[in-house]
Design brief:
Elements (H helix, E strand, L loop, with lengths): L2 E5 L3 E3 L12 E8 L6 E5 L2 E4 L4 E5 L8 E2 L19 E5 L3 E6 L9 E6 L4 H10 L5 H15 L2
Parallel strand pairs: 3-6, 5-10
Antiparallel strand pairs: 1-2, 1-8, 3-4, 6-8, 7-9, 9-10
Helix pairs in contact: 1-2
Bound molecules: copper (II) ion.
The site of copper (II) ion has 6 residues, from loops.
């Protein structure tokens, strides 16, 4: 299982991946406001589906955000992921699964996102998210909503 991250200025290979990142399959913006009116500190979109081998580009549209794994729900054996603050990075996901990410300073405000790679059992993920220890209430609630949305055809 590999995840590859290519920063704009610096390529970081987290695991065994080699070569350039795939063309971005999706772009996730890091926002201080919205996209929903009244909402603050959010990834947009917060739910991304990509095929196995697909990539996500994280764009620091607003400053002060990063992207890190939600460890309690990270797929077993998957390498970690770290998109630094204010950095644009493209992350390639080479194994199927559900990859929940958070902004470190804003996870308590619900700044989380789900990257669904290939076919994944969203009911299983939703059950784990409902009971995982240590999740902030807003993060847990948002993960539940995202898992439900991902589970609908
Ligand atoms: Cu943030």
């Amino acid at each position: 299982m590999t995840i590859r991250i290519a920063l704009a200025a610096l390529a970081v290979l987290l695991a065994t991946g080699q070569g350039a990142a795939a063309e971005p399959a999706a772009t996730v913006r890091e926002l201080n406001r919205g996209p929903v009116a009244g909402e603050t500190f959010a990834y947009d979109p917060a739910l991304v589906r990509i095929p196995v081998g697909g990539a996500v580009r994280f764009e620091p549209t607003d400053k002060g955000h990063n992207v890190t794994p939600i460890q309690a729900l990270w797929p077993a054996g998957a390498p970690s992921l770290n998109v630094p603050f204010n950095a644009e990075a493209t992350v390639t996901f080479d194994s199927p699964g559900v990859y929940p990410v958070q902004c470190t300073p804003h996870t308590g405000l619900g700044m989380v996102a789900l990257i669904v790679v290939g076919d994944a059992d969203m009911n299983e993920f939703a059950a784990k998210a409902a009971s995982a220890p240590g999740l902030a209430p807003k993060a847990r609630a948002k993960l539940g909503v995202l898992a439900g949305a991902a589970g609908r055809p």
